[in-house]
Amino acid sequence: MHNPLFYERQRMRASTWNVPRFLHSFDETIDGGLILPRGLIGTVASLAEEAGSRLKITDERAPGTGQTFTFTGTLTGIQREAVNELAAPFPHRSPRRSSANAA
């Protein structure tokens, strides 16, 4: 993906030293593997399938442990409304109307 900052600096004739021309969100392992963010799995799987290749996925995330927290703060009115909306059964319909729908 092109880095907009690089091209902006280039247009202004400012130094582009240490500003990458391309942004990437992956890393390579010594043995040639790729380390990718979870959000890219669908895109990468589609690209591999289109290229007639297959993926070998190794999930090395730590499973973590469950935590219990207690909230001891005080919510404002609007925060309380937001919590109530989030806690409502799904699917949720907000009682508020947008200005586009208002008569």
Mind explaining what this structure looks like?
With 103 residues, this protein is mostly helical. Helix content is 28%, strand content 4%. The chain is built from three helices and two strands. Strands 1-2 form a two-stranded antiparallel sheet. The longest helix is centred in the last third of the chain and has 11 residues. It is extended and about 50 Å long. The C terminus is likely disordered.
Question: How do you describe this structure in short?
Answer:
The chain is built from 3 helices and 2 strands, in the order αββαα. It is mainly alpha-helical and 103 residues long.
Write out key terms for the chains shown.
103 residues; mainly alpha; two-stranded antiparallel ribbon; 2 strands; disordered C terminus
Q: Regions with pLDDT < 50 over 5+ consecutive residues?
A: 97-103
Mean pLDDT: 86
Give me the secondary-structure category. Answer: mainly alpha
Give the tally of β-strands.
2
Order of helices and strands: HEEHH
Distance between the termini: 44 Å
Task: Give me the number of helical elements.
Answer: 3
Helix content: 25-40%
User: How much of the residues is beta strand, in percent?
Assistant: under 5%
Radius of gyration: 23 Å
Identify the overall geometry: extended
Strand order of the largest sheet: 1-2
Largest sheet: 2 strands, antiparallel
